[in-house]
Amino acid sequence: MNRNGLYAVIAILLVAVVAFAIYTYQQQNRPGVEVRLDEQGISIDGNG
After folding, report:
1. CA 11 to CA 31: how far, in whole Å?
2. pTM for this entry
3. What keywords sit in the KW lines (predicted)?
4. How many domains are contained in the chain?
5. Domain limits at 40?
6. Are 35 and 47 in contact, with CB atoms under 8 Å apart?
7. Secondary-structure percent of the chain, ordered helix, strand, coil, rounded to 5
8. Per-residue pLDDT tens digits for 1-42
9. Alpha carbon distance, N-terminus to C-terminus of the chain
């Protein structure tokens, strides 16, 4: 494999890692609502 091909593979891998990191960050920080039903009754927790 020549050098340009190697650079292309490295660039594609870096883009994939960055895209995965951004996706993971957005999934962890998205607003949502959690509803729980337990012995104390219903509790609703919104983190948005």
Report:
1. 32
2. 0.60
3. Membrane, Transmembrane, Transmembrane helix
4. 1
5. 3-46
6. no
7. 55, 25, 20
8. 699 999 999 999 999 999 999 999 988 887 778 888 988 888
9. 49
